[in-house]
Design a protein that fits this description.
mainly alpha, 9 helices, 0% strand, binds zinc ion
């Protein structure tokens, strides 16, 4: 059992490492597949043994081996997070019990594909979160590509395609309308694509909940930053950070939150 979870964790941190590399290349407009990893400062090619997820950062004491330039904490944090979150998704789907050793009630094949879809979703959400936080930008490739992949897998695995499609339309329209009215001052074009992606992940009902959660978290953090005088009233906010975080929460606990709410009002 420990061995299984260690493997999942290693898979997670590897995808975290891939995420970091892709963000860098996408932002610099570099080829996404060609070429080896290089130090951004001294341009020296990074050897495989200095490129081991999570481990190398600490072995190198967060500095490039050649030029001693600091390596960003983004690298180990994102890698560790992806490792933990891959473990969580495996646990959530009962993959250890049902897939490998649950002879009695094996999950049907479809459930494995849904498990993989959820791994893709958490990777895409993390990608958008980090990219928006760091560059205040949203990648079309990842949002639209992610939405297409998630929607197609949901179609194949018997998801409620109408709810997902309606969610995508509502999610995109919600931001498009604000974008048009404010001439792009309230929300960015990237938010329209994130809204579309959120609908394709959650379906229309949970999408509405996720938007509400995002605005509540955004308001709390916004007020906190104002009080701490970190931001002025007009400072631009990377809203994709709140949207992706809310999507993650609602994806796994949304139904519970709705049930809880219905219990309270009835
Ligand atoms: Zn260097």
């Amino acid at each position: 059992m420990a061995g299984f979870y260690i493997l999942i964790f290693i898979l997670g941190i590897s995808f975290g490492s891939f995420l970091n590399a892709l963000e860098w290349r996408l932002n610099k407009g570099m080829s996404l597949v060609k070429g080896n990893s290089k130090c951004p400062k001294c341009n020296r090619q990074i050897k495989w043994y200095d490129n081991i997820p999570l481990v190398s950062f600490f072995v190198l004491k967060s500095k490039c081996r050649t030029c001693k330039e600091n390596i960003s904490w983004q690298y180990p944090i994102v890698e560790f997070w992806m490792g933990i979150v891959f473990l969580f998704v495996s646990y959530y789907h009962g993959i250890y019990e049902n897939v490998l050793f649950g002879n009695a009630d094996m999950l049907p094949f479809i459930d494995y594909i849904i498990f993989i879809k959820d791994l893709v979703v958490v990777w895409v959400l993390t990608f958008i979160f980090v990219y928006d936080l760091k560059y205040m930008e949203v990648s079309d490739l990842v949002t639209l590509g992610g939405a297409a992949i998630v929607f197609i897998i949901s179609l194949v695995t018997g998801g409620d395609w109408f709810s997902l499609l309606l969610g995508a339309v509502i999610g995109a329209s919600f931001f498009l309308i604000q974008f048009v009215i404010s001439k792009g001052r309230w929300v960015g074009g990237g938010d329209i694509r994130i809204g579309l992606l959120m609908g394709a992940i959650l379906g229309w009902k949970l999408l509405l909940l996720a938007l509400w959660v995002a605005y509540v978290i955004g308001a709390i953090i916004g007020v906190a930053l104002l009080v701490l005088r970190k931001k002025k009233m007009k400072s631009p906010v990377p809203f994709g950070v709140f949207l992706t975080f809310a999507t993650f929460i609602v994806m796994f606990w949304g139904q519970k939150i709705l049930d809880w709410y219905v219990n309270i009002i009835s």
